[in-house]
Amino acid sequence: MSKIGFIGTGVMGSAMAGHLLEAGHELFVYNRTYSKTEALLSRGAVYCSSPQKIAERAEFVITIVGYPKDVREVYFGDQGIFKAELGGKTLIDMTTTEPALSKEIYAEALKAGANSLDAPVSGGDLGAKEATLTIMVGGDAKIFEKALPLFQKMGQTITLQGRAGSGQHTKMANQICIAGAMTGMVELLAYANKAGLDLEKVIATVGGGSGATWSLANYAPRILREDYSPGFFVKHFIKDLGIALAEAEKMGLTLPATALAKKLYDRLAGEGFENDGTQALIRLYWPEGIPEK
Predict the structure, then answer these.
(1) Taking the model in full, what pTM does it have?
(2) What is the mean pLDDT of the chain?
(3) 53, 89, 129, 171: which one is catalytic?
């Protein structure tokens, strides 16, 4: 069993860390909001007061935080991971962040005698709870193999995509795909409702054919219950789409559908729903809830 440090115990991180604890690993945790670590502490995890303290005690340090600025603070801040002695340790950032930042962490880790992987995930809160996440990894093959048993406790589809930053680029491709799926799903519901159809029947029918998507299967039923709790925050999806569009621009690539999806989510956040789940996009169509047919 390994000594694992886990930084970021929010909606996703708490469940992911819990699987590692259940597997028998010694777990050290840190979160800016202490109360978000309490469930893990009650099950035997040990609290540390900073990312540096985590890195001093753990063999593997896993991070999953909100934004690139948070990643930078956790790794490079005054009490960050790189302030610890890191010889022989493995750093795994599972945040969705900028590929360039993942490469920077990789280079700094090597200087410190450590190794790093970028390993963003997809699957939302359900995937985290059920340990069925898709994990997209960038870094060295031998370090990937070393970390694989840990990934297997948190996810199902786990793939080394290439060198440092490749996991993040794969996640951007994933988010581009989801952007289209989410806009299609909410407009499907808006159209079907306006046409006077039974929405549950429509979801089941479309979900049984070529229109089937993860978003339709998982988020459409939540919408019918008017459940906008965050499996994945609107504000974080906006961050991801911003990174994807910026990376596409660097490559000379135009993504008009993704740009439109980001505008819709920006509008949703502007109306006060940035802390809702991404399925809240339907609020732009149904601001007062499901309308009468």
Answers:
(1) 0.94
(2) 97
(3) 171
